[in-house]
Batch of 2 targets.
Target 1
Amino acid sequence: MSTQQAFQTEALTTMARACRKAARGPARATTAQKNRMLRDLADRLEAETEAILAANQRDLDAAPGYGLSAAMVDRLRLDAKRIKSIADAVRQVATLPDPVGAISDLRPQANGIQVGKMRIPLGVICMIYESRPNVTIDAAVLALKAGNGIIQRGGKEAFHSNHALAAQIGHALEAHGFEAAAVSLVPTTDRAAMNHLLTLEEEIDLVIPRGGEGLIRFVSRTSRIPVIKHYKGVCHLYVDADADLDQAVALLINGKTQRPGVCNALESLLVHADIADAFLPRALEALAEKGVEVRGCPRTQAFSDQVLAATDDDYHAEYLDLIIAVKVVDSYDAALDHIETYGSNHSEVICSQNRRTTERFLRDVDASAVLVNASSRFNDGGQLGLGCEIGISTTKLHAYGPMGLVSLTTEKFVVLGDGHTRD
Amino acid sequence: MSTQQAFQTEALTTMARACRKAARGPARATTAQKNRMLRDLADRLEAETEAILAANQRDLDAAPGYGLSAAMVDRLRLDAKRIKSIADAVRQVATLPDPVGAISDLRPQANGIQVGKMRIPLGVICMIYESRPNVTIDAAVLALKAGNGIIQRGGKEAFHSNHALAAQIGHALEAHGFEAAAVSLVPTTDRAAMNHLLTLEEEIDLVIPRGGEGLIRFVSRTSRIPVIKHYKGVCHLYVDADADLDQAVALLINGKTQRPGVCNALESLLVHADIADAFLPRALEALAEKGVEVRGCPRTQAFSDQVLAATDDDYHAEYLDLIIAVKVVDSYDAALDHIETYGSNHSEVICSQNRRTTERFLRDVDASAVLVNASSRFNDGGQLGLGCEIGISTTKLHAYGPMGLVSLTTEKFVVLGDGHTRD
């Protein structure tokens, strides 16, 4: 390790320790204190729009040098309206219920003690993200409301924007008696610094990478700290023999076309053989009207010469585009097998009016959200009633599915006695 | 990698895949099916006592070759009474409530869908343990009751005992329509095999190491799969200025001496300066009566020339023996700072009749169990009402504290609609 690297890793360790210490502030604050600070932050973001936009312009000027695509530049770009909407999102978080401190299930045990569980902050969260500067505010605000500190490592493309936004967080924290270090932006975007952060298991409790699959796989392979993983979304709609066909068409079109570029969009359609004659002609017509390319099994192809032949890769694909893979299956069990083989544990939908079949599907399918007669697009923190979302977990430890404030907390046991000792 | 190693890693991967597939059995079984299988297993263990003891004898005969201490040989040894008690523990698990399938908080959202969470098995658990053969039964039974498959890697010292016990699990599973592979004992105890297991993130959802700190640190550093960590227990009793002194003495003696060799035993005593004159003479006398060696700060030493001087290492120590570190602190905050610096997030006790102080302690102290006027020895799954315990987590992700059946499950979102689509 060079002297400069050694210097940098020591600075990062110091930063993480300071964040851990500063995190006691939000951990012990009352809900009212946290909410006042958040509302103040929202006001500051609006008042400092000009300074934030000037910083953002520096990033936009540098964007061609990073070879950013037009879509990436759009994600990077802030304007007064976007800042207003970021500030409004902060005010919205201030209205959400505070999970911290709630004691549940407090009850006496046979041995005489009372035992319950108290919800507490996780401690320090490390957020690793790419080019969207709004994440700097969104993630910090959720972490703070749940009583945590946060270490943020954004992408180099948004370096100046992130610093301008983080400065406002620091001002708001200090104005309300918190240490600014409770939200610490990593001052460098180099890879070695990120790798070092991922070893700080004494200081950091949870790592949340937000970005492409490559980033997430890298972080989860490298980290000694638990990582919330969100891989791809290969979401299926299974149209059962007992489906309401109007509903099935509506769920198909909504899931595939309402916003095809997101992880809870449909990528595959499974159709029970008994209903294929009645359903597939309507489904294929509706998909064609929306300009969706269909890649199907031979039985699907029999319904239209527009249907291309699906390969095994198609059933694995997360298209994020107006393309869908279609397969006719002989039974509920065949549909389930297909989902187990090709699904990604993200969102799985059944369309059926048969209660026994839908109950089985709810129980049997291993996905972060299992939906009956509802669009896959509902698997989203806001739609599911969490009020917010810091990410979606497709692995089962700690959190599974969209993560709201409660997922940024844990529970400890509390025991109340009156001098009780153990025999 | 040698040909033999390549063969072995492939065999382990195949085993893990078979376990994952077989785990669908317990995942989808009814509570009654699982309980019948467990009661049958208990009967088989008793009926096959002779065969199990013969296998155990082979391990006992080999023990000197492994250089096992007398205490380790005792942990390894089975007899008819111990087998009866293992079987009774299995019957006890059959009586526990089944966490799987419960749907909580099902409620309508503004968008019209109903959203709830369903409790589901984690999938496949990998248990890595040392010389106690009873873990082979205990862990398998808890995993199965919670609907999971389990891969078990026991220590070489208990190789034959573990195989004899696992054989009975296999028979019970098959007799009740489950695949024996749902409980898979790793057929080798070499290190390379364990390392390979810890890379199988597609097949295994959670790793639980049970043993010394060295094993746990090795597993958590090596594994790509989430690991439940249980490091040491440096548990404090803080005797506040408003303590009931009779209670304080009772909590001290019970916490330190009732079973000094376990992780929830007390290792340190903190005494508020205002009450030191009244409390410490009584405390030191009671500790002396029980033969406990005291290592204290200078203010503690002033009360008795039997008190040795405590070093910084003493405040960090997990003695697991009749030794205690004692310190007089000037305030509640000083006690809290000491616990934050030296504690291990395991079990922390306050003795106080002051409601404001105890409420603050409950909220401020970061430990898997925080106890008010109750012995640290209550931090145990059985005592806390979990009915069982597969381990204690001292890290906050997924589980914090003793882990019962619920900690071997997770929750997925369930969404019920009637053709609902997203705007």
Target 2
Amino acid sequence: MTDMLARRAALLGPNVPTFYKTPVHIVRGADVWLWDADGRRYLDCYNNVAHVGHCHPKVVEAIAEQAAILNTHTRYLHEGILTYGERLIEKFGHDLEQMIVVCTGSEANDVALRMAQAVTGKTGFIATDNTYHGNTTAVSHLSTRRPPIGGWPDHVRRVPAPDSLEPLGGSLPAQPEAFAVHVARAIEELEDAGHGFAGLMVCPIFANEGMPGVAPGFLDPTVDVVRRAGGLILCDEVQPGFGRVGAAWWGHDYLGFAPDVVTLGKPMGNGHPVAAVVARPDVMRAFREAFGYFNTYGGNPVSCAAALAVIEVIEEEGLVANAHDVGAYALEQLRGLSHPLIADVRGVGLFFGIEFARDGVPASSFCETVTERMKDRGILLGRVGRAQHILKMRPPMPFGRAHVDMLAEVLAEVLKETPEDA
Amino acid sequence: MTDMLARRAALLGPNVPTFYKTPVHIVRGADVWLWDADGRRYLDCYNNVAHVGHCHPKVVEAIAEQAAILNTHTRYLHEGILTYGERLIEKFGHDLEQMIVVCTGSEANDVALRMAQAVTGKTGFIATDNTYHGNTTAVSHLSTRRPPIGGWPDHVRRVPAPDSLEPLGGSLPAQPEAFAVHVARAIEELEDAGHGFAGLMVCPIFANEGMPGVAPGFLDPTVDVVRRAGGLILCDEVQPGFGRVGAAWWGHDYLGFAPDVVTLGKPMGNGHPVAAVVARPDVMRAFREAFGYFNTYGGNPVSCAAALAVIEVIEEEGLVANAHDVGAYALEQLRGLSHPLIADVRGVGLFFGIEFARDGVPASSFCETVTERMKDRGILLGRVGRAQHILKMRPPMPFGRAHVDMLAEVLAEVLKETPEDA
């Protein structure tokens, strides 16, 4: 382990963090399980990318089979991208009928931004002040982690993210309208500054913002504001998509609004680097007329085979219904936990969290200790929220009721054993 | 075929070109061969991404094996990225000892730009006026195809690309110095405009510029100019790298200069979406301190297994020496072709071209007809150059002398049969 950390630092340089204070050396995965080099088994309650389960045999076989036959780009005709695309598009409403296949969610969001520019002829964007949509230069401008060299670009405006402890507008019911008011103000600023307004990029369940209790209808006032201003709704479905929200295939359908552009990330290929942008034909046309975009390995036969297998597994194994059922059961079980620092238990489908706070103040250090101790007890979780005080649970989709029971049981023990001032 | 084109247009939208007037429907690949749906076999003289040959069994097996065991991100420790990285870094000199693994060449170049910003604190970039380095928003600013929405960004300056028909400085021997003079002027402009100079991004063999006869030493005067101005040399090895130039593993070592940052693209994984940025530790440190960069699937175990297999195949099959030998033989054979429109035959290793012109005027249409007819005769080629008048040949690395003979023989016939005004 020490040796691996030293080799890693020598090879990758500084500031390449691992999860956990003592990192985990994972060597094998299957279904909802990961194993470390000592043979210890972990229940994976965190990794959404292995969407249909780690190393799902059907996806592995699809990749292996197609990789042995042909892997090339889309300047030649191939059945793979057509079959896959037609299956994918069936899952969408709102005239979202066309797609571009790329390799990463970052590439997808980078394209989505340009689609909004192409349609509107404007360059201004809005995102929340506690989000992350990817790592290209253009997309990382939407994040708030660190200022880019040369300073923050003027054409991106950040609006306050919805929050559960300190809701916008002073109360949870007031939050949807209050969020829309902030968006309207940012649009005005972009117009006054001469950039104009191209679009709002948003995750429909505000996953990176800590999933602050958004419910159907939450974004309706915001969507109205964006539409009236002539901008586009760029909907980042990298986390909620492919049935994770349980009630629907997509977060935007769960919330009940019509995006102009939807982006999909690597859960699409169960970890194989494939991602996509889905858009209305009028939006696609504007983009395709403005840019000569080509992605060498976007839509190659192997990526499409992996992605097709993922859709088939979701359907064959009833994973959307499972996310709905098991997600509800998880909320029920976790809400049964009693602890003075539990401020909220919330979630949708197989994406849920527990917020820790004392008198409205985030209990970050307690949350961190719980996460570490859960790992030591064989359960992998993450953290999210402005103060990293929310336990983040986002397991592979075959997660079942027995896994919830195990999670809830161990968590109850860890909560009992962990001092409140840990 | 008609049906596939209609489905493609319905699904992908307009302006998604295929190669050739009548596109090819490729269904299978092996070694240097591709097969279409009618069972016709094509000699692949174009696709560099299938670097060690289409569907190389060793790469396919590495992918299949690792995909069945584990595929997850680098926030956990894993041997794969370490073993691969250590093998890769061995191939580099110039203190290029650290790396970031990403998924595409575009992502790699997008990171390289930010490395130069982080080191210099400046934002200005230089590229040639006939290049392509990738498709992210930031990287596509270096390309010249179409203006971005909002206009060309002021912080990118384009210098005239080296050219074979109209060399900079008026003659081929004068070209290296003349290119450097243009770069020096652009640096001055960037400084006058207040951006300052961060770096020059360049392919060492000017692959997209039509490979205008660059030889060892070509970039020396330019490198001097860049160094004196405090900027970085960002060397895009997506095309020349991994031994394609024959004389060395990397284009910059063939030319004989020391880059600050090197980027690698999908030939690295024989088509599996894996790419990388290699840099000196001081450059990596500056980047890692300025940006919190994480790429979910960059460096995952499957990508690293694919990439490791590629290095092993290159070594086991002696593909760098093969590129050197067969490349020289190809030049010899192609120079034996006699045709009034052949203005130049040039290349390095397994990257070579034939330039068609009449009295110094590019013969674009003739070149296109030849490419189409070669395809009809079962040989896949591409075109490059400002006027698309240069036959571009960049076959998989196991290309042998027998394949050269076949190429030269069919090309001789097609040249004879094709009217000069075709």
